[in-house]
Amino acid sequence: SNESVYRATTTAPVNIAVIKYWGKRDTTLNLPTNSSLSVTLSQRSLRTLTTASCSGNFPAEDTLNLNGKPQDIRSSKRTLACISSLRAHRKALEDADSSLPALSKFPLRIVSENNFPTAAGLASSAAGFAALVRAVADLYQLPQSPKELSRIARQGSGSACRSLMGGYVAWRTGELADGSDSLAEEVAPASHWPEMCALVLVVSAEKKDVPSTEGMQTTVGTSALFAERAQNVVPQRMAAIETAIRDRNFPDFAEITMRDSNTFHATCLDSWPPIFYMNDVSRAAVRLVHDINRVVGRTVAAYTFDAGPNAVIYYEDKDSELVAGTVKAILGPNTEGWDGAFYDRIANVTAP
Length: 352
Ligand code: PMV
Fold this sequence. Notes:
Number of domains: 2
CATH topology of the largest domain: Ribosomal Protein S5, domain 2
Distance between the termini: 25 Å
Order of helices and strands: EEEEEEEEHEHHEEEHHHHEEHE
Bound molecules: (3R)-3-hydroxy-3-methyl-5-(phosphonooxy)pentanoic acid
């Protein structure tokens, strides 16, 4: 009835790309210039928790509260795009079955909370939009698969489309102008490579300098290296890292991951004006990983950096003393320059 309050709660994980998404060919639909591939972290330390509710009794407008602060939903085109797609899917269900409550007509109330710093280059928008889409899809009891929902989440934040699935997830660029084939798909479940671990080193929990959309547009418009990466470098790397994942070949996985992080940051430096996401502490982490790999005599660790100074280091649990132990000893949470560290595993996303 109109007085009832309908509600759904969900959590969504962070994903950290090993082949980076950087550059949009369509800024409205969030269509990428290159495919990307990420690893979904368990929700042990980083996650978004979102509750979506609706009722005929709610005040007329949709609302969004993020970490205790009301957001101006009307100025967020991306949030509006996600909500209107989800509502259209619900409306289609109601049109087909008149016994269903008319939830599509009710105002929505969305309350979302991160257990980690927002917009610090810790993929908060990925977990945030994935949780929003999953929560509203659950509230509306939509039959769409995670792959189909990834099309909606992508419009919130590109990387969010990869947080609807667990394990190793590819986001294919797609070819169509309407973006209907620009979707995320699972390459391998977490159980395929259970030894994989991630260490998130928080260099700074401050808000990042240049938001990713703005940074991407500067890079797309001014860097010649960017076009080279998107057209000639990433396609081979996507194929090679998928093979490394299939074969659980850590040295190959690690080298491709590190090289792609470096190439992505090189395109930022090649932008005009140049964009710097990594800082001196980030570079110390890069040197440390190369030192560990050299001293051990095999590749046991891989670093990657998103649009911020924080490092994510991948390693296999048999090497956790070597890698996490050494990193913690040298750059650990109590060392100046570091705000903290999270240890994490790769996980599946469990369907509600
Ligand atoms: O999803 P966005 O618009 O916040 O962009 C994310 C970009 C990177 O994190 C740097 C790379 C990636 O693939 O996640």
